Amino acid sequence: MSERKYGRPLMPIRRFNYTARQRIARADADIVLHGESTDAARFDANLHLSEYEFPPDARVFVEAYRQTSLMRFDFGTVSAPRPPPERVLVDFPTVDEVLFRVKVTAASERAGVLLGEADQLRPRQPEQQPDRRVPLLPVIPANLGDEVWRVDFDGRTSLLVSRDLHDWKQTVGSHTFRALVYPAALRMILERILLIEDYTASDDPQDWRSQWLQFAARIPGSRALVLPGSPDEYEEWIENAVGAFARQFQLRTGFIAESAQQ
Predict the structure, then answer these.
(1) Is the pTM of this model over 0.90?
(2) Fewer Cβ in 10 A, N or C end of the chain?
(3) Measured between alpha carbons, how far is 86 from 256 in angstroms, rounded to an integer?
(4) Coil, helix or strand for 53?
(5) pLDDT mean by block of 10 residues, the chain; 262 residues
(6) How many CB atoms lie within 10 A of CB 93?
(7) Contact 28/121 with Cβ under 8 angstroms?
């Protein structure tokens, strides 16, 4: 099968930002988490906003969130940052997979309008170096009833894993889990993007759908450098990307080896 069968390249879509919202670089929003227990876990936010074109009186907020839980902290203004003295994450049953976002909002003209944002900021420990990568599929423990895992599409993509497992972190890290879950999750996500939402743009680095299409296109040997020319070819393109993903990480080999040890 030739790559040229797919007659339509990854088509760019021009996007307009009517509110002139600025994207705050991850390097300018460093979140440091101290402690692991929820009654003692607190954070520091190292924010560098002076180089952005924000009004001096614009308000700065830092939000910690995980699924439906959210805590908002007032960090003063752009010209006079003032971190709140209490920055303890008391509203979360666990600090595992808590993410952060930084928001800058107008204070005078168009009060409350969002002027700038950095989202999905993963905190680091004090001894760790900043990691600017954005996980496409963060793993989050959740109450799933009798389900073991589920792909969540609430705003972005995340892999929910039952918190009732004996050791969910060890389970997620096993070759068996990776082999059985990740190809299915990738197929589910690409089907959502192409078959359900009919989304084919890949030029927006902030859109989770564009990020996933770029990821699939860059899998070695996936033949997914261009999107199929019609919806009739979407399924073949998806299967090709999933197969290349499994080959890249040798999922069958890892599954067989781990099964033989049990």
Answers:
(1) no
(2) C
(3) 50
(4) coil
(5) 37 40 85 74 91 91 88 94 91 82 89 88 77 73 92 86 89 94 96 90 78 87 68 87 92 90 77
(6) 11
(7) no
User: Per-residue b/e over 167-181, b at no fewer than 16 CB within 10 Å?
Assistant: ebeebbeebebbbeb
The set of residues, in sequence order, having a beta carbon less than 8 Å from that of 250 and lying 6+ positions away, is none
Q: Which among 3, 14, 17, 11 is positioned nearest to 213, based on CA atoms? A: 11
Q: DSSP characters for 63-113?
A: EEEETTEEEEEEEEESSSB---S--B-TT-S--TT-EEEEEEE-SSTTTT-
Q: Residue 66 pairs with which residues in a beta bridge?
A: 69
Q: In the beta sheet, which residues pair with residue 99?
A: 65
**Residue 43: closest CA among 62, 58, 61, 59:** 62
Count of residues making up the chain: 262
Number of continuous H segments (helices) and E segments (strands) in the chain: 5, 10
Which residues, in sequence order, are bridge partners of residue 105?
Answer: 59, 114
Alpha carbon 9 to its chain's center: 25
Note whether 121 and 101 are within 8 A (CB): yes
